Amino acid sequence: MSTTPVILLLSGSLRDGSTNEAVLRTAQAAAPGRLRTVLYDGLAGLPHFNPDHDTDPLPAPVARLREAIDAATGILICAPEYAGTLPGSFKNLLDWTVGGTEICDKPVAWINAAGPGRGDGAAATLRTVLGYTGAAVVEPACARIPVDRGALDADGLITDPAVRARLADVLDLLAAHHAELQEAPQELRAT
Ligand SMILES: Cc1cc2nc3c(=O)[nH]c(=O)nc-3n(C[C@H](O)[C@H](O)[C@H](O)COP(=O)(O)O)c2cc1C
């Protein structure tokens, strides 16, 4: 069995040229070779959450989301703040995770890319909602990395080496959490 950590990257923005997606795509580019990253691209295709549809068979986009979470050893989220909280479309994604077990005890971290003094409402909501999903928040891997739209290059990536190094650190910390779990006795493993 492969022990290469796989980090699922979840952007909370649907906007073309999103800075939050840019953070995650830059994280992919800067990722240490010992781990794999997968950028989830299904946010726009998720149906509105409806408990009546949270049954077998699940809507195909929801099944795909849950499979991606299940296959990951950790999750990194980067979501903007809308009106003091998470974007509705991303809260919708999180609502779809509640009825499954895939995210339970899954190591999760987030990056807050908002400018100084901004984005705290979204971060607070994220923490609350993740608590309900049962995800295991890896606090040392959660980071505030302010990113300005002007910081993106022609490919939509962040070139600042300091930001890239921090993103690599965040992924490393999530992967290290995975490694610790692999070494833990079976009954203590999260996944
Ligand atoms: C409808 C809407 C509401 C917003 N509300 C807030 C807010 O409450 N607090 C904040 O700091 N920024 C707010 N913003 C700014 C966005 O968080 C900011 O533009 C962010 O970079 C968008 O992320 P993206 O570039 O990944 O799409 C809002 C933007 C929009 C479009």
UniProtKB/TrEMBL annotation:
It comes from the Bacteria. Residues 7-140 form the NADPH-dependent FMN reductase-like domain. One of its GO terms (molecular function) is oxidoreductase activity. InterPro entries: Flavoprotein-like_sf (IPR029039), FMN_Rdtase-like_dom (IPR005025), NAD(P)H-dep_reductase (IPR050712). Signal peptide: none annotated. GO terms for cellular component: cytosol. PANTHER family: CHROMATE REDUCTASE, NAD(P)H-DEPENDENT FMN REDUCTASE LOT6. This is NAD(P)H-dependent oxidoreductase. It comes from Streptomyces antnestii.
